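Same chain as my last thread, 145 residues:
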Amino acid sequence: MSLFDVLSVSASGMAAQRVRAELLTENLANAETTRTPEGGPYRRKDAVFTTEGQVSPFSAVLQTELTGGVTGVNVAEIVEDTRAPEKRYLPGHPDADANGYVAFPRINPAEDMVDLMGASRGYQANISAMTAIKDMINRSIDLMR
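reply #2:
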């Protein structure tokens, strides 16, 4: 495995964490949304990660063939929460049903904030790994001079 392959792994991790962070902020922004264009309350979304082979644009084809490849992370799919919405008794609300209950999304803002901090830390860890690899590459170039 070359240092350039490791850069590809970290880049895939950063891209996956970015998607996760975007979904979490969308969930937080729509925590009180009771009406969507599709009808009904907003549905919480979450990213499902999977491993994926990485091909470094910097490494030679022979190097890739000899090492057997490197795996990174990829967003396989985005799933919506299928649970029934949370019902709150608000008879004056415009989206209230005949009994006065309003359907709200099943979103726990505290849980999503903790998940967002985790995504942020995962992103930062990949940046740190890329910085360390960049320093190793620069040091290698200096040693070859």
